[in-house]
Specification:
- This protein is of the alpha+beta class and 93 residues long.
- The protein has one domain: Winged helix-like DNA-binding domain superfamily/Winged helix DNA-binding domain (Arc Repressor Mutant, subunit A).
- The protein is 56% helix and 13% strand.
- The protein contains 4 helices and 3 strands.
- A 3-stranded antiparallel β-sheet has the order 1-3-2.
Length: 93
């Protein structure tokens, strides 16, 4: 089961990987409502990701202008969060 933090980090990574993404498409991809997505994006902002929303036509798009700054640490944090467990895996310690 994914932690709430991991879900937030994965959303930021998907925006960075795909570029500006429509709100509804991003919510659908991550299997959540747009309201939940917006809460997760606010959490990401609290972690330091500069998530911007821009309205183009009738759709809202999200981007991460400071992607170059957060990308490396984001990847490391995702790996740590995915590995978080009280059960040893092969190769641990």
């Amino acid at each position: 089961m994914k932690s709430e933090l991991l879900k937030t980090l994965l959303i930021v990574r998907s925006i960075i990987d795909t570029g500006p993404t429509p709100c509804a498409e991003l919510a659908r991809f991550h299997g959540m409502s747009t309201a939940t997505l917006k809460r997760r994006l606010e959490d990401a902002r609290q972690l330091g990701a500069h998530v911007e929303s821009v309205k183009l036509g009738a759709r809202w798009y999200y981007s991460v202008p400071n992607a170059a700054v957060v990308h490396r640490r984001l990847g490391l944090w995702i790996k740590l969060e995915e590995a978080r467990s009280l059960v040893e895996a092969d190769g641990d310690l």
